[in-house]
Protein: Nitroreductase
Organism: Trichococcus collinsii
Amino acid sequence: MTNKLINNDFSDIAFGRKSIRLYDENFKISQEEMLKMIQEATTTPSSVNMQPWRFVVVESEEAKAKLKPLIRFNTRQNDTSSAMVLIFGDMQCYEYGEEIYDAAVEQGKMSAEVRDQQLAAIIPYYKNFSKEQMNDVVKIDSSLAAMQFMLVARAHGYDTNPIGGFEADQLAEAVDLDKERYVPVMILSIGKAMEEGYESVRFAPEKITNFK
């Protein structure tokens, strides 16, 4: 399969997207391919490379049934998609800072001296963030990963639908996550589309852009 992201061909990925609500419910995506797509999606940048995104792939009938009451306006996607990909932001992502930077040293991407200097500055800085500040950081970074996942999924031949309408206060606990640590960012349905989808209107770039 040609990866259009690698070949920089976005012609029917970024600009030809439609909102898909109905999928082929008999089509399943393997866990191996799902992990491959997540790996490709998480090449996206994040603040000081803390990578706060966390993924929960809801694919079993049992898990979908548990999710369904929490997304009452998006049940068609839940019922027919290959999976519902729940994206959370880890409010304590900085705890992995040493592991991330150690790996960078081992792979020759950073010197040990630079690692030590950066961690000494970054970790205390993150720990001093207010809850609101940290919430903003992890949601921005995780949203980048969500958008990249949508592009990656399209390159793999699948369709997606981003969902923001869900019971945010219940989502983490429904998938056995600590709701104080993991904040829900977005849900993406993914699968093989069974409909043309809905086109939507966009403002002209001149209306939303200023040049100074």
